[in-house]
Amino acid sequence: MILSNKKNNKENKPGIVRILQIVSSLNVGSGVLAVVLNWHRNIDKSKIQFDYLYVLDSPAENREEIEKLGGQYYKLPNPCKTPFKFLIESYRFFKKHHYHTIHSHITHLNFFFYPLAKMFGTKNIIQHAHGTKWSDKKLNGWRNYLMLHTVWPLITHKLACSEFAGKFWYGKNYTVINNGIDLEKFKYNPNVRTLKRKELGLEDNFVIGHVGRFSSEKNHRFLIEIFEQVYKKDNAARLILVGSGPLEQEIKNLVNTKNLQEKVLFLGVRKDVAALYQVFDIFCLPSLHEGMPVVAIEAQASDLPCVFADTITKEVLILPDSKMFSLKDLPEVWTEEILKFKGYKRHCDVYYSKIKGFDIKDIAKQMEKFYEGLN
Fold first, then answer.
1. Does 172 lie in the same domain as 204?
2. In the chain, which ranges are continuous DSSP H helix?
3. Tens digit of pLDDT for each residue in 237-280?
């Protein structure tokens, strides 16, 4: 049985082009879903509408927003748990729902989806590259690569979140679509900073921030090692971790082992992330791999100094005070740079023009023209 919001079914409404967005889940912490939802919120919904196909269990929050935006969602059985049921329901889905255009943000499951979509009349198959690695696990990486490339000829349009991701996935002949955000929402606000730091009891602290899912590619273990060194040099330092994920407890155990449990704040999934960027004094993202992380754009929109791993595309260096370091460098090297930003004075709109290319209003219009051109 496919989970869906059938009561909101508007697939055949005249004048609206409906695009099927294929994602792994509707989880709040999903960076990919954040990108697609940002498009959905800002696109002209009298012309373009999004529906969603996913396979992993997800909380109701984003499903409810999709309904309010006028979208439809469908959940297929998890192929890892019930593969035969997944195949049957996939066939039934594409036989019943005829989309002119599908836009996929995942990899290996397209081995099943693309032929079925083509069989039942889909004309445009869009593949979107969001990362620079096929998987964190070598075996899964080979699986993803081989399964996707088996149906490679069925792809009609290739998109990427950055040049780095595009070259990794496709080599050539792709289009880069910047990950857009609401710039006004994340703009630095000193009043919000003062109130939020007081609320969290961090008025006199030097705060390092990180926003991201607790998964291996985010490299939280190295982040904790960095913070441990920062704290040794500055006892007023604090680390805020925003997000959730499978490795959260493991990282909490590591923090406890290092006796830093009173210095590291695990805030979970939050609705006030824009305000939390105001609280931070510096943003640290030592990921093992990324395409073009939305959180990096959000942080810099807040005029927040950032330190990134050089495994992330250099396109992430938007503001002049954003720096990159090698993961081969000792935590002490990162610590030295981080502490240079104590007392850094942030501004409201000094660098606005540099980050203007990531304005979601402009990106949404770009996506509208792209989709309309296909139909």
1. no
2. 31-42, 60-68, 83-96, 110-119, 138-150, 163-169, 183-186, 190-200, 220-233, 248-257, 273-279, 294-301, 331-339, 352-355, 360-374
3. 999 999 998 999 999 999 999 999 999 999 998 989 999 999 99
- In 259-311, at which residue ranges do the beta strands (DSSP E only) sit? 264-268, 282-285, 306-309
Are residue 87 and residue 205 in the same domain, yes or no? no
Other CB atoms within a 10 A radius of the CB of residue 10 amount to 12
Instruction: Match 């240079």 to its residue by tokens.
Output: 340
Asked whether residue 128 falls in the same domain as residue 208, the answer is no
- Contact between 49 and 18 under an 8 Å Cβ cutoff? The reply is yes
What is the rounded end-to-end Cα distance, in angstroms, of the chain?
A: 31
What is the tens place of the pLDDT at every residue in 162-221? Answer: 998 999 999 999 999 999 999 999 999 999 999 999 999 999 999 999 999 999 999 999
Residue keyed to tokens 């009891």: 201
Q: Are residues 161 and 301 in the same domain?
A: no
Q: Is the CB of residue 45 less than 8 Å from the CB of residue 69?
A: yes
CA pseudo-torsion sign 97, 115, 164, 306 = positive
CATH of the domain at 321: 3.40.50.2000
Range(s) of the domain holding residue 321 = 183-356
Number of domains in the chain: 2
Please indicate, yes or no, whether the overall pTM of this predicted structure exceeds 0.90: no
Nearest to 372 by CA among 153, 9, 46: 46
